């Protein structure tokens, strides 16, 4: 099935300007009809949802763009894409450890305050 930019935007919960930006940054190769109007396919849905997941890991647009360009090259680029994902996983793991430390610090301070409130 084909979708107009408006339909696609609603379907994947991204604005039309964001989709145009993704196109400009080569994150998404957009199909065009005979009149030159953009259209999107069901394959594009899965791709955009994956881009959102990459963004949620904290991956930069620069790295997502590298990944996207490799993706469009096909299976010959799997090793390179895997490397990008493994590097991002390491970055996310380091960030997770920082957050766990920060949460532990908050929990300690909360426990101190609760203890002080109970003793008064």
Automatic annotation (TrEMBL):
The reply on keyword Repressor is: yes
Q: Which GO terms describe its molecular function?
A: DNA binding; DNA-binding transcription factor activity
Query: Is Repressor there in the keyword field?
Result: yes
Q: Which UniProt keywords apply?
A: Coiled coil, DNA-binding, Repressor, Transcription, Transcription regulation
Annotated coiled-coil positions are: 82-116
**In what residue span(s) does the HTH merR-type domain sit?**
2-70
PANTHER family in alphabetical order: MERR-FAMILY TRANSCRIPTIONAL REGULATOR, REDOX-CYCLING DRUG-SENSING TRANSCRIPTIONAL ACTIVATOR SOXR
Q: What is the name of the protein in this document?
A: DNA-binding transcriptional regulator, MerR family
Source organism (scientific name): Propionispira arboris
């Amino acid at each position: 099935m084909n979708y107009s930019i408006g339909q696609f935007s609603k379907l994947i919960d991204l604005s039309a300007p964001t989709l145009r930006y993704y196109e400009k940054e080569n994150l998404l190769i957009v199909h065009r009809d005979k009149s030159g109007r953009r259209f999107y396919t069901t394959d594009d849905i899965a791709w955009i949802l994956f881009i959102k997941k990459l963004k949620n890991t904290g991956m930069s647009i620069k790295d997502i763009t590298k990944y996207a360009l490799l993706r469009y090259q096909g299976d010959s680029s799997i090793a390179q894409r895997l490397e990008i994902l493994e590097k991002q996983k390491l970055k996310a793991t380091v960030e997770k450890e920082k957050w766990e430390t920060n949460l532990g610090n908050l929990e300690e301070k909360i426990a101190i305050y609760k203890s002080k409130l109970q003793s008064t």
